């Protein structure tokens, strides 16, 4: 699967899922702009996924916590592109926060969780989706299986809220772009993913596979025909099958 001469934006590049997506796009011949709020994490990412000095990886420090930071991050990405167009965008921001049970949780905790996991993905779409509409491009979000079930532990309910909100955002963006060429989709991952070379997920539980195994599914969606879909991966076999489609 080749992405030669294509420019890929990965927002949340230094997260567990984002790191694998960056590596696999580089392997496929793309130029990858990786965005993280922490410059040091971008340097660590280079070592972790073995990015060499001559590889077409462009680190961009930026955040999407509010309108001002999102606009500044967009400007930094456009400066890095230097007139080139984006072909595909992956926004994989946020993670599952632990909290008290819903009725014991302060409102500001909920607001903070939505800022880091829903609002930032919304702002990423607001910044980059309009420029993709009239071309054969893709914009891919990431959510999780907690959107569909009662959380197995009350402390994980914020993940349920954020993932469900991201799934709803998918359909809203799909409606907005229904007559456009860009394809908006969300990969909803129902299982734990380990970091590169790891065997445990972010909660310290055993994971069957790592982000490098998962990432080809993202490339398949970028190359595919899915449009306006919530693509649920219930098991690793679903991810493997999508990657081979």
Report on the architecture of this protein.
This protein has eight helices and seven strands; from the N terminus they run βαβαβαβαβαβααβα. The protein is α/β, with parallel strands linked by helices and 245 residues long. The protein has one domain (7-244): 3-Layer(aba) Sandwich (Rossmann fold). Strands 3-2-1-4-5-6-7 form a seven-stranded parallel beta sheet, sandwiched between helices. The N and C termini lie close together (11 Å). The relative contact order is 0.15. The model has no long low-confidence stretch (mean pLDDT 95).
What summary fits the major beta sheet?
7 strands, parallel
What is the molecular shape?
A: globular
Number of domains: 1
What ranges have pLDDT less than 50 throughout 5 or more consecutive residues?
none
At the fourth level of CATH, the homologous superfamily is NAD(P)-binding Rossmann-like Domain
Question: What would you say about this model in short?
Answer:
With 245 residues, this protein is of the alpha/beta class. The chain has helices spanning 16-27, 39-48, 67-81, 107-132, 157-176, 211-214, 216-223, 236-244, and strands at residues 7-11, 31-36, 57-61, 88-91, 138-144, 183-189, 229-233.
């Amino acid at each position: 699967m080749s992405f030669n001469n294509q420019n890929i934006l990965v927002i949340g590049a230094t997260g567990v899922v984002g790191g694998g997506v960056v590596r696999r796009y580089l392997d496929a011949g793309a130029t990858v702009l990786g965005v993280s709020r922490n410059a040091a994490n971008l340097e660590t990412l280079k070592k972790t996924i073995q990015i060499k000095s001559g590889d077409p990886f462009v680190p961009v420090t930026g955040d999407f916590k509010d309108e001002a930071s999102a606009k500044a991050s967009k400007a930094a990405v456009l400066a890095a592109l230097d007139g080139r167009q984006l072909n595909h965008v992956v926004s994989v921001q946020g993670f599952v926060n632990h909290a008290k049970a819903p009725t014991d949780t302060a409102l500001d905790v909920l607001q903070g969780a939505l800022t880091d996991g829903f609002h930032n993905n919304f702002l990423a779409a607001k910044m980059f989706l309009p420029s993709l509409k009239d071309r054969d491009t893709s914009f891919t979000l990431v959510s999780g299986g907690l959107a569909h079930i009662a959380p197995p532990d009350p402390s994980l309910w914020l993940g349920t809220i954020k993932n469900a909100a991201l799934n709803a955002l998918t359909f809203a963006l799909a409606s907005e772009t229904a007559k456009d060429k860009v394809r908006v989709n969300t990969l909803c991952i129902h299982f734990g993913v380990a970091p590169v070379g790891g065997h445990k997920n972010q909660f310290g539980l055993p994971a069957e596979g790592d982000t490098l195994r998962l990432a080809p599914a993202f490339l398949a969606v970028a190359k595919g025909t899915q449009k306006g879909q919530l693509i649920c991966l219930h098991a690793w076999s679903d991810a493997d099958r999508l990657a081979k489609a």
